[in-house]
Design a protein that fits this description.
LabA; NYN; 10 strands; two-stranded antiparallel sheet; NYN domain-containing protein; 35% helix; 8 helices; 6-stranded parallel sheet
């Protein structure tokens, strides 16, 4: 699946990966995740995408964002948008698909292999375009949750599918009480 001399880039859809790991009952240890993929190839970049609630005094994801930024991850953030739906419920929207897609397309000529941490079917055209440019694409998500967190179309398009559950012993840790990604953003980012 991986070759030692290939140039790798990781693209992590933060809310999607958080939701998949939570569905499997563990948290991601990002230091171990980065080490694991550095071992698998020549990692050029590890991108992490998330929307942030800017108007809250404290965001539960802020400590993670800061830690990732200081520990070798390229952080891509934008303010989440809050709105009230037709039923009067407060909702938060924070979709990072366009930012991830643009960055992946820009980096494609400089890498051999992209690892996408997302199960969002909206990324299928991106994966197909990267493949046409000669980039191998592995997708990390899960089919072992109910419902599965990866779309069938994305899984079929990828060169490799990596089951997140099988990485649990390598990159996982027991879940914390306080979520690292706000549930409202994770639920609406897809």
């Amino acid at each position: 699946m991986f070759y030692k001399d290939e140039r790798l880039a990781l693209f992590i859809d933060g809310s999607n990966l958080y939701a998949a790991a939570k569905a499997l009952g563990f948290d991601i240890d990002y230091k171990l995740l980065r080490q694991e993929f550095m071992r698998r190839g020549k990692m050029l970049r590890a991108f992490y995408y998330t929307a942030l609630l800017e108007n809250d005094e404290y965001s539960p994801i802020r400590p993670l964002v800061d830690w990732l930024h200081y520990n070798g991850f390229t952080m891509v953030t934008k303010p989440a948008k809050e709105y009230t739906d037709s039923m009067g419920r407060r909702k938060v929207k924070g979709n990072m698909d366009i930012e991830l897609t643009v960055d992946a397309m820009e980096l494609a000529p400089r890498v051999d292999h992209i690892v996408l941490f997302s199960g969002d079917g909206d990324f299928r055209p991106l994966v197909a375009s990267l493949q046409r440019q000669g980039v191998r694409v592995s997708v990390v998500s899960t089919i072992r949750s109910q419902p599965p967190m990866i779309s069938d179309e994305l899984r079929r398009q990828a060169d490799n599918f990596i089951e997140l559950e099988e990485l649990r012993d390598v990159i996982g840790r027991p879940p914390r009480d306080m979520p690292m990604e706000p549930r409202s953003i994770a639920a609406n980012a897809q």
